[in-house]
Amino acid sequence: MAVGWPSSQVMTPVTRQEVLGLYRKIFRIAKKWQSASGQIEETIKEKEYIKNEAKTLFKKNKNVMDPKLIKQCIEECEARIEIGLHYNIPYPRPIHLPPMGLAHKQGRMLRHQEKLRKISKPIYLKSHDEVS
């Protein structure tokens, strides 16, 4: 449910406050989190996942300096928070991408198919493949 953040060296004070606010929000969510199943073991496991995912992604992206990438990280974090709270699942939701079976194993069609898959990936999953 989290996305890593850029260092404070390049961020404006407003951006820094926004990022730190999202980081704190994630840990408040993790503290109050209840799994959909209601089982204690599952709740503990999901709380740990939320905290570990936040720590990992924030550390990974702490040196991002491009304002567009910073904005993208913030948008991804907000999307993952909203989706997690709405569906009561902390894990990124699977998506339906165009199948790769239509393209040849090499060549222009494969590159085109890979490009379509990349641009069709929702913002809330951009960092998931990089970390998992």
Mean pLDDT value: 80
Helix and strand pattern: HHHHH
Largest sheet descriptor:
none
Gap between N and C termini: 13 Å
Low-pLDDT segments: none
Describe the structure.
Belongs to the complex I LYR family. Residues 17-81 form the Complex 1 LYR protein domain. This is Complex 1 LYR protein domain-containing protein. InterPro entries: Complex1_LYR_dom, Complex1_LYR_LYRM1, LYRM1. With 132 residues, the chain is mainly alpha-helical. The chain has five helices and no strands. The chain has helices at residues 13-32, 40-60, 67-87, 108-120, 128-131. α1 runs antiparallel to α2 (40-60) and α1 (13-32) runs parallel beside α3. The radius of gyration is 17 Å and the shape is flat.
Summary tags:
132 residues, mainly alpha, 5 helices, Complex 1 LYR protein domain-containing protein, Complex1_LYR_LYRM1, LYRM1, Complex1_LYR_dom
Condensed summary:
The chain is mostly helical and 132 residues long.
Q: Any chance you could write out the topology, listing elements then pairs?
A:
Blueprint (H helix, E strand, L loop, with lengths): L12 H20 L7 H21 L6 H21 L20 H13 L7 H4 L1
Helix pairs in contact: 1-2, 1-3
